[in-house]
Design a protein that fits this description.
Helices cover 62% and strands 4% of the residues. With 342 residues, the chain is mainly α. It has two domains: 148 residues, no CATH class; 175 residues, Rhomboid-like fold. The strands form two sheets. Strands 2-1-3 form a three-stranded antiparallel β-sheet, with helices on one face. The chain has a two-stranded antiparallel ribbon with strand order 4-5.
Length: 342
Amino acid sequence: MARWRQSSISANPEDALPLVFYPFINRKCSGTAALQRAISRPNLLQPTLVATEDTSARLVHPLCLPESTQQCEKVRRDRRSVVFVTVAYFAACLVALFLLPEYQQLIARMMAFLAVIGAYCSTDYWLTFRSNDDLKDRANYYAWLFIKSPRYVYGFLIFYLLSGFLQWQDTETFLARYALLFDLPPNEPWRFMTGSLIHASLAHWLTNLVMCLGVVALCAPSLGLMTMPVFVGGGTLSFLATYVFESRFSISSADGLVGTSGGIAALLGCMIGLTLRYSASYPKRLGFTVMYFLLVSSILGAIFQANTSLACHLAGAGVGAFVALFLPDRLAAGGGFPTNTA
């Protein structure tokens, strides 16, 4: 049995029940009103844990409460609504595609994103959401992520804030000094690494910051101390692969390459590899969810944005998947967890 399935993290003896715990801000609220707020809008990704007398003071995801059948049905209903709305928007875009030919390219891009979202949501609903057991198993895993991932998320947040602060002092000079240039100056191979850790603009930095924090929350508990090496190493090797690709085929019109999306793709590729190698240690079809995240965040974005490198994202994901071949199963049974949150 995987560690997250056998974990037992309990409220402190002095905490009054029912208890609501917000792990990312380390805040606790007691009382029936707090519990009702936590369970009134059930969501798999809701970073909240609850403990009641019915759970023997154990902190669990709200969907894992003994009386959560109604909440599970609400989650299913919300997912069905997403599917229906996506289909409706796709149909509207299909009509607009013929009525507004001058906007065909923009509409086609929107339809592609809607098709991916609809395909994922409908497939995941059919394979996972229809079963209470599978849904609660996924919720239990996410609850474990909420407990284990904050330290990694805050570590990467500090890294991004520091790198952004250093870069925005003098952006042009910083990029000229550290970006990867396809016309690589002699004796400057370190640009493969530095280029993969900086950004072209504030919007670029902010986009990758938000995306990276979500990916780290998902992947870091499985990678542990290997999270940063995979991120930095995957980004560096993805830049090297992109440089070799561009030197050979000269597809891009850009002069160089910057951004952490290669490292982000490496984390996702590594997570996909781990879920495939150690499928028994993860919720059913979690790898499918990670593949979807990779498709939306890295590949589709690169296809539809001319200044985004698809080769870099694919190379990063490939490097991460290769690294997964040599990593142990950190989620396998053993080790144990603390009995208290504090």
